[in-house]
Backbone:
């Protein structure tokens, strides 16, 4: 399976909603992920019946891929999350999870209902953790890992590298 979840979720079910083809959903999503990677996108925004957008260098741009239907989005979510999608009235109309597309990258995913239809936002998480030098972090950041009591807060706006910085620090400790 080229798309696999990296976490086990309750009610795991590897099939998309009834009548939707899992292989076709995987192929459509892999095509979108490849188009986003070619553009250097950090985020991918999927809405049924609308163009697929990717965020590259902080700006949204339409990706040159076929427009997914609402059913395509639901199938992509079900296949990657390996869980059934809640129907309306079955608790919150949103969930978060992560999955890995083999030989591509990992993704943090947020599936949610918008105007009564499933939509998704995917954040690209690189397979390898960049080091301090690659991130061009100031030398003082290395001192944060010195054994001393305290708490380190990493803050900033969306897409500023908070998770990547935390991963680099944790990788350095390990």
Residues:
């Amino acid at each position: 399976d080229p798309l696999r979840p990296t976490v086990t979720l309750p009610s795991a079910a590897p099939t998309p909603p009834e009548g939707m083809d899992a292989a076709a959903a995987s192929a459509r999503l892999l095509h979108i992920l490849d188009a986003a990677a070619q553009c250097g996108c950090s985020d991918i925004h999927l809405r049924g019946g609308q163009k697929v957008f990717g965020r590259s260098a902080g700006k949204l741009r339409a990706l040159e891929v076929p427009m997914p239907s609402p059913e395509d989005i639901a199938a992509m979510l079900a296949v990657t999350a390996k869980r059934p999608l809640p129907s309306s009235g079955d608790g919150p109309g949103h969930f978060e999870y992560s999955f890995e597309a083999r030989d591509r990258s990992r993704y943090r995913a947020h599936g949610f209902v918008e105007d009564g239809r499933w939509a998704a936002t995917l954040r690209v998480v690189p397979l390898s953790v960049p080091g301090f030098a690659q991130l061009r972090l100031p030398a003082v950041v290395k001192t944060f890992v010195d054994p001393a009591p305290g708490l380190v807060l990493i803050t900033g706006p969306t897409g500023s590298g908070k998770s990547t910085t935390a991963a680099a620090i944790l990788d350095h400790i390990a």
